[in-house]
């Protein structure tokens, strides 16, 4: 049964998260090398998978991005978590970011992405890690935990996309795939144009990055994920005994809070946090940074999976 945290006031609450909030500040921009992380890659399924590492030590955390985004969405969060004593690995799934972008839709599926995260752990020589992500990344984390529960120390799930989101997701992504099919020459021209625009801020680039992408690669990702399973089914999720931090947002039909609440109730050791909006962690991150830092402290201080 999940513990649901709802906030009425901006300051953090008592406990480990509140203690973490005293030191939870975004990494200073002056430390450019640390904030950019250490780039690496490995081969899986014949594809190059790119990742970045921030920090060092025995507390690894793997973070996976949202659909048609990439690991740069964690460019501010990852250094903050690393400064808190965590080794943070942000990864680009196949078809995203600096990883190979195959045009065959069968190369893209949630279960396969979950196995790719486990392959990343093998590549890095990690027996176990906290695994998490945003939207698509949250679902990928669930897939990794279902495929190899003993490899996942704990779960961090920001706005998972589950059964309650399916109508809105279909309404958004099926027309998007159709639009890509019928306007491929236009989208290629727009991609070339927008790639010339310098990167500026997270929110602006999040909107531009979809247009910057190879439209053929975007279509392959959308087709592969649309015609496959979106997440492990409820009966598989209910078997997971991992500690989990679930973050949900209101007023977002593709990521309804009801899905975050649902998975929080399904997972036996979950805590659900209600953010003010989808923008909170991007614009006013102090509270959610502190929640995650406190959760990571708890995850590594307690007994590893499987829980007793």
Low-confidence parts lasting 5 or more residues at pLDDT below 50?
6-24
Strand content: 15-25%
Instruction: List the domain count as a whole number.
Output: 1
**Please, what is the CATH homologous superfamily?**
Alpha/Beta hydrolase fold, catalytic domain
Could you describe the largest sheet, including whether it forms a barrel? 9 strands, mixed
Count the E strands. 9
Order of strands across the biggest sheet? 1-9-8-7-6-4-5-3-2
Kindly name the structural category. Answer: alpha/beta
CATH classification class: Alpha Beta
SSE sequence, one letter per element: EHHEEEHEHEHEHHHHHEHEHH
Work out the helix count.
Answer: 13
The CATH topology is given as Rossmann fold
Helix content: 40-55%
């Amino acid at each position: 049964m999940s513990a649901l945290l709802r906030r009425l006031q901006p300051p953090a609450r008592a406990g480990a998260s509140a203690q973490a909030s005293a030191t939870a500040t975004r990494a200073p921009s002056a430390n450019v090398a640390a904030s950019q992380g250490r780039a690496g890659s490995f081969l899986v399924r014949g594809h190059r998978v790119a990742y970045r590492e921030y920090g060092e030590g025995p507390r690894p955390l793997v973070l996976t991005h949202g659909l048609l985004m990439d690991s740069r969405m964690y460019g501010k969060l990852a250094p903050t978590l690393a400064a808190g004593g965590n080794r943070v690995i942000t990864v680009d799934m196949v078809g995203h970011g600096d990883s190979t972008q195959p045009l065959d839709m069968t190369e893209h599926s949630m279960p396969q992405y979950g196995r790719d995260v486990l392959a990343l752990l093998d590549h890095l020589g990690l027996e176990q890690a906290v695994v998490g992500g945003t939207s698509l990344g949250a679902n990928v984390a669930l897939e990794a935990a279902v495929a190899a529960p003993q490899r996942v120390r704990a779960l961090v799930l920001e706005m998972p996309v589950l059964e309650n989101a399916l109508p809105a997701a279909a309404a958004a992504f099926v027309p998007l795939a159709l639009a890509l099919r019928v306007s491929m020459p236009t989208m290629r021209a727009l991609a070339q144009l927008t790639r010339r625009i310098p990167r500026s801020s997270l929110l602006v680039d999040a909107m531009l990055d979809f247009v910057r992408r190879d439209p053929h690669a975007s279509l392959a990702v959308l087709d592969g994920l649309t015609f496959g399973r979106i997440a492990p089914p409820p009966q598989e999720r209910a078997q997971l005994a991992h500690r989990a931090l679930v973050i949900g947002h209101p007023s977002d039909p593709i990521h309804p809070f009801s899905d975050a609440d649902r998975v929080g109730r399904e997972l036996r050791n979950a805590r659900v946090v209600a953010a003010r909006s989808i923008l909170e962690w991007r614009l006013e991150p102090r509270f959610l940074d502190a929640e995650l830092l406190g959760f990571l402290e708890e995850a590594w201080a307690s007994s590893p999976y499987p829980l007793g």
